[in-house]
Amino acid sequence: MGKNTDAAINVIGHRNPDTDSLCSAIAYAYLKREVTGGNYIAKRAGQINAESKFVLDYFQTAAPEYLGDVRTQVMDVEVNRVEGVGEDISLKDAWGIMKEGMLQTLPIVDDNGYLNGLITIEDIAKSYMDVYDSCVIAKACTPFQNIVETLNGEMVQGNAKERVHSGKCLIAAANPDLMESYIDKDDIVILGNRYESQLCAIEMGAKCIIVCDGALVSFTIGRLAENHGCFIIRSPYDTFTASRLINQSIPIGYFMKQKHLVTFGRGEFLDDIRETMTKKRYRDFPILDWNGKYFGMISRRSLLGARKKKVILVDHNEPTQAVDGIDEAQILEIIDHHRIGSMETMGPVFFRNQPLGCTATIIYQMFQEYSVEIPKRIAGLLCSAILSDTLIFRSPTCTQVDRDAAEKLAEIAGILPEEYAAEMFQAGSNLSIKSPEEIFYQDFKKFELEGVTLGVGQINSMTEKELDAIKDKMLPYLKKALSEHEVDMIYFMLTNIMEESTELLCAGSGATDLAFKAFSLPVETEPIILKNTVSRKKQVIPALFIALQDPD
Fold first, then answer.
1. Are residues 38 and 84 in the same domain?
2. What secondary structure, in 3-state letters, does 504-548 show?
3. 161: number of Cβ within 10 Å
4. For residues 49 and 22, is the Cβ–Cβ distance under 8 A?
5. 3-class SS at 382?
6. What is the C-alpha separation between 481 and 162, in angstroms, rounded?
7. Do the Cβ atoms of 475 and 369 come closer than 8 Å?
8. pLDDT for 481-494, tens place per residue?
9. What is the DSSP letter of 9?
C-alpha cells in the first residue's frame, strides 16, 4: 500500500491578478524548475483580464490553473491507499487482507472503482458470533467458489461459478433413515466417507455434499451426483472444522455497511470535515477522487500529519490581497515591489522586495543571477508585465532598471515595445461590452492601515471617451462593491495613459473628504482629476495613508 505524496509548490500572485502578477508567477515557476528541478507550478487567484488574456494568447502560453483557496485539504493528508476489494470475496479472505495490512476497515468497490460499502473488524466478528441462521449461506448468494477456497477443497462435481440461492447447511451425523427426515431439496450437506450417507443426501435432492477428511469419492457417487444435479466438494478438514469454517465463505457484501456512508472528497477542506469526523465514531473514512471513485482511507489521526500547502507569493505581500486561506499555508518566498505590508509567516522566508516598477523586472534580474537562458515565450511575458505595470514607462514607479530590462526582453521576444504595448493596452481597454463587476475586478486591491480598510481599483485606457463610458457604469456599482467587500472606503482610478492623469471615483463615508485632504484639493472639487498621477502604488495609496495618519 502506497501513500499519497503530491507536493506541488504553488507560485501565485494576488487576487484579481493583473498582467505583472500573472506573468511573474509563470516566469518564476519556470525559473525555479530550471534551477532546482522541483515541482513549481504557476497558479492564479482570480479571473484573467482582457489585457492578460491578450498577452497569454500572443505568446502562446496556457493560463495558470485557478487556485482560490490554499487552506489544507484532504489531498494534503497522508492517505492510506488501502486497495478496494470486490463484494464477492469471502469473509475469510477479507480477514486475511485486514490482518496482513493491520486494517480496521476494508473498502468494497465495484468493477469501475466506485465505493459500494465498508466492512470492519467488528462486522466480521459479528458474522461469527451473531449469526444462527442455517440458511445464511443461501441468503448471501454465496458463490460455490468461495466455499471451495474457504474449505481448502476441490470441486469434484459441479460448477464453482454458480451461487447458492436456496437451502440450508447441515451436518449429516445421523444414519440414513434419520437423514431423510431433515434433508431438504437444495441443502448443503457436510458429511464423511460413508457411502450410504452420501447416497441418501443425493437422493433427497441436496444441492451440494461436502465430503470431509479428504475421503475419496467413488465413481458411482460421482455419476449419481451428476445425474441429480448435485455438486460435490472434497475437503481435507474434518466435519467439525468444515462446519465451523463454512460461514466464512459468505461474501462480504452480505455484511458490509452500504447506507449512510460518510465519505470525503480529495478537494474538501480539513476545516469542513473535522467536525463530521468528531461526531462519528468510525476509525476510518473513505476518500473519493475527483471523479467520485474510491481513492483511499484516512482516520482522525491522519489529520495530525496534514501538510500545509507550499506557496511562493509574487507581486504582493499583504494578507488582504492574497489568496484565501493564506494564513494556513506555508509561505516559502515572497517576490514583490510594493510597500511591505502585514504578512506574517511561521518561520523565516526568502523575501526579495525592490523599489522597482514591476515584479517582472526582479524576476528578470534573477534569471541573470542564476545564468538561466530566457526562452522567447518567457521573455515576452516578462516584457509585457513591465510595459503594463509602468504604463509604457510613463509611471513614476518606472526606473531605468525597468526600462533596460524591458528593452532586453523585447529583443529576445522579437517585439517592438511601444507598438506592442499599444496593441496590448487596446486589447485590455476594450471595456464597452463588459459589466461594471467585470471592470471593477480587473485590478482591485485592499489595503489596511490602523484599523481602516481601503479598496482601490484601477482601469487604464488610451482614450478619454472610453473612460467617460466606464465612469457612467462604475459610479452606481461602487456602493454595491463597498457592501460586498466590507471595506470602509472604496476608490476607483480611471487612468488615461496618454494624458498621464487619473479621475478618482469615491464611495464610502468620508472617502471623498479623505481624497480632498490627501491631494490638497479644494472642498467639493468635482470631478476629482489628479494630474500627472497614474500609479496606485506610488502616488495614490501613500497619499491616502498619509492623510489617514494626519490628525488634522
1. no
2. EEEECCCHHHHHHHHCCCCCCCCCEEEECCCCHHHHHHHHHHHHH
3. 9
4. no
5. helix
6. 68
7. no
8. 888 888 899 999 99
9. E
Residues 6+ apart with CB under 8 A from 151: 210, 233, 235, 237, 242, 245, 246, 249
What tens digit of pLDDT does each residue of 47-106 get? 998 899 999 999 999 999 999 999 999 988 888 999 999 999 999 999 999 999 999 999
Report the CATH number at residue 287.
Answer: 3.10.580.10
The pLDDT tens digits for 164-192 are 999 999 998 767 767 777 888 999 999 98
Which sign does the torsion angle of CA 439, 441, 442, 445 carry? Answer: positive
CATH of the domain at 179: 3.40.1390.20
Q: Which three cell numbers stand for residue 513?
A: 473628504
From 249, 274, 293, give the residue that closes a domain.
249
**One-letter amino acid identity for 42?**
A
DSSP 152-183: T-EEEES-TT-B--S--EEE--S-HHHHTTT-
Res 293 pLDDT > 70: yes
- Give residues with Cβ within 8 angstroms of 304, minimum separation 6: none
Residue pointed to by grid coordinates 516598477: 357
For residues 169 and 213, give the distance between their C-alpha atoms in angstroms, rounded to a whole number: 18
Looking at the chain, the number of H-run helices and the number of E-run strands are 19, 21
* Segments forming the whole domain that contains residue 268: 75-128+254-305
Select from 67, 43, 15, 28 the least CA-distant residue to 359.
28
* Nearest CA-CA partner of 45 in 326, 269, 447, 290: 326
Cβ neighbours of residue 394 closer than 8 Å, sequence gap 6 or more: 497, 500, 534
Residue 62 neighbours by CB under 8 Å, 6+ apart: 56
**Grid coordinates given for 176:** 440414513
Amino acid in the structure at residue 383: C
Residue 349 C-alpha cell reads as 522566508
Whole-number Å distance between alpha carbons of 380 and 97: 56
- Residue 418 counted as domain residue: yes
Bridge-partner residues for 65, per DSSP?
43
Report the domain count for the chain. Answer: 4
Q: Is 464 exposed, middle or buried (0-12, 13-18, 19+ CB in 10 A)?
A: middle
Dist CA 462 CA 484 (whole Å): 30
Cα–Cα distance, 417 to 413 (Å, whole number)? 10
- Taking the C-alpha atoms of residue 311 and residue 29, their distance in angstroms, rounded to an integer, is 11
Co-location of 324 and 351 in the same domain: yes
Nearest partner of 436 among 496, 505, 502, 387, judged by Cα: 505
Instruction: Output phi, psi for 131, to 5 deg.
Output: -105, 115
Please check whether residues 416 and 350 belong to one and the same domain. yes
CA–CA separation, 31 and 54 (whole Å): 23
DSSP per residue, 51-62: HHHHHHHHTT-P
Strands 285-288 vs 294-298: parallel, antiparallel or unpaired: antiparallel
Alpha carbons within 13 A on the beta-carbon side of 438: 13
Strands 528-531, 65-66: pairing is unpaired
